[in-house]
Specification:
Elements (H helix, E strand, L loop, with lengths): L1 H17 L8 E7 L4 E7 L2 H10 L5 E8 L2 E7 L2 E11 L2 H14 L5 E8 L4
Length: 124
C-alpha cells in the first residue's frame, strides 16, 4: 500500500513540476484627462503595459496615469463641474482607493465629488 502511495505522490509532484508556469497578470492603471476623460487597463503583465493600454483607451486627452500592482485605483470628479476639481488614488482595496480619491477631490475644491471610474487588478 505504501508503494502505491509513493508512486501516486511522485506522479502528482511530476505533474506539478512539469505543468507550464504562467506569469500572473498583476498590474492595472487609469489614465486621467481634462473634463472627466479617462481610460483604463487591468490584469496586465507589467505596470508599463497597463499604462500604455490605459492611455490608448482614453477617450479624450489623458496626460496622467495612476497605476497599481495587485490593488485598486479610483478616479473622482466634481459631479457638477466635470472640468473642475478631480481626485485619484490607489489602494490595496477598492474602498480605500475610492475614499482617498474622493478626499483628494474635496481637498482641491470639489463640492459634489463622485467616483467617475475605478479598476481593481483581479489578482490583487
Amino acid at each position: 500500500m505504501s508503494f502505491v502511495r509513493g508512486i501516486f505522490r511522485a506522479a502528482i509532484a511530476a505533474a506539478i513540476i512539469l505543468s507550464p508556469i504562467q506569469a500572473a497578470h498583476a498590474a492595472g492603471a487609469i489614465a486621467i484627462g481634462a473634463c472627466a476623460a479617462y481610460g483604463y487597463a487591468y490584469d496586465r503583465p507589467t505596470a508599463e503595459d497597463a499604462q500604455a493600454e490605459a492611455l490608448k483607451n482614453c477617450e479624450g486627452s489623458c496626460k496622467q496615469v495612476v497605476t497599481t500592482k495587485k490593488g485598486c485605483v479610483a478616479f473622482a470628479i466634481d459631479g457638477r463641474k466635470p472640468c473642475g476639481p478631480l481626485g485619484f488614488a490607489n489602494g490595496r482595496r477598492l474602498g480605500e482607493a475610492q475614499n482617498a480619491a474622493l478626499k483628494y477631490c474635496h481637498k482641491h475644491g470639489g463640492k459634489d465629488c463622485v467616483i467617475r471610474a475605478w479598476i481593481c487588478d483581479a489578482k490583487g
